[in-house]
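Input record (one chain):
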Amino acid sequence: MSLVALHDVAKSVRLPDDSLLQILRSVSLEVGAGDHVSIVGRSGSGKSTLLNILGMLDMPTSGSVSFEGREVRRMRAGRLDRLRGANVGFVFQQFNLLPARTALDNVMMPLGHARGRMFWNRRRIAADMLERVGLGHRVDQVADRLSGGEQQRVAIARALVRRPLLILADEPTGALDIDTGATVMALLDEVATETDAALVTITHDLHVAARARRHYRLDAGVLAEADLQRAFEASTLQAAEVAR
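The corresponding structure, as predicted from the sequence alone:
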């Protein structure tokens, strides 16, 4: 059974002039436990919308979305919130940290709704996760005084702290230098492997995408399998032409 599955999903929004903007078109995707999937595409292709639907933050206009075989579009809001909070970890492109709270407070937030030992030991668990992303020395620093790269690592620690079944990462290395980005991707891979979690990465970086086992491209709302080797060759050719 798939962990999360989309079947024939479409998403449209109504514009101020009453016309419809089609964001996703007949998207079908199944992601199982332990999968690592990358999705590449140009800005405006619908990648973030697709990620939000996979993570149950948004619902499609039509089509089916299921999590562990349960159709989520029929769930009440409270049940959906609990399902998402316990099972999905998000790494947002814009971080979405509480700027006036410390790094530790931000990472502890998802544990406030946990149960048992995870709740009672939430401070230690959050501190350990910050240590794993290289911020053990910054636990008491408020978020808006951290650099962009440090804020990204706090966001990643927050996404991983409950050891979710599904990790959704929107440009997880976008604010990081090459070395730190590689370290963060290795951490995402490591935690996903430890917990047999599914990892879905949206990125414009072909090197980040190549770390996945399955690769897709989203173009004008249409999802298709991607040939990364061909994409690398095209990128290299384009860079050579620019350098002339």
